[in-house]
Amino acid sequence: MAVAEALDRLTPGDHAKRSALFSSGAEAVENAVKIARAFTGRDAVVAFDHAYHGRTNLTMALTAKSMPYKRGFGPFAPEVYRAPLSYPFRDGPGLDGAGAARRAIDVIEKQVGAADLAAVVIEPIQGEGGFIVPAPGFLPALRDWCAENGVVFVADEVQTGFARTGAMFACEHEGVVPDLIVTAKGIAGGLPLSAVTGRAEIMDAAHPGGLGGTYGGNPLACAAALAAIETIEAEGLVGRAREIERLVLNRLTELRRLDPRIGDVRGRGAMLAAELVKPGGERPDPASAAAVAATAHAQGVIVLTCGTYGNVLRFLPPLSAGDDLLHDAFDVLAEAFASTR
Q1: At residue 93, does pLDDT exceed 90?
Q2: Where in the chain is the domain with CATH 3.90.1150.10?
């Protein structure tokens, strides 16, 4: 009950809410889709290019990238459709957020149809897909279209939630209030807990016994969640994420000035990335990304790659990390870039 009350208080919007607790992010995403289908009486679900939503059957269907997440594991759940995301680095300067939203909505209306669509499921900032931050205006335009057409707008904040992006939830950066919001990962500091929180009338649509799980909302994970939320608030970790953003973006921008392989630097808060390309263009360079990551790892700094093309270096520093430690890490990263050039 205390965790549900905290989610009611913290998640965007002042409407009446309900929460259902589960164990993993993928499980929560699946249940969000079940709730949306029960509420609307419709079947179709739209996800986006470069999306990642989990490794269960339905969430694999929602996920865009084949290897390593989907290959050999089909067939996948039906009635899942894909729309183009706003990807500023690859869309080019001529397509702003509103234009990218019109492009996506046009695909949805032509290939699915609003009358058959239960939910639009989207990461406000994509995670495994490459830490892609949609252009301003993209998310609000999608949210408005969903509201106008009775489609449930589901924000997958499994990676972005709980202070990671310099707001408690990434939706808040553009004032977007989702119908359903999915949380996990940071909710309980690493213990297995996830949640779907949303408008009471939508959450109440599922019949009794239709939602649940053996370990969902277990007492240990709930205690951890309450402690994690208390720590985030008491230690000002939302503000700390914004401080990390300034430091890391400064270091990445300087690296970009020195190394033409860095085509784009992006992100929010302590969820940041550098996209590597062949110098002089936008052709992905996954080999360089892998080489830089391996070289940094050999010097004690763990850097992971991500993105549809495997050419993005992602940075998720602990919100408790001090500036000195971050500078030490990026000194190692600078050496890794220099030695692999």
Answers
A1: no
A2: 237-340
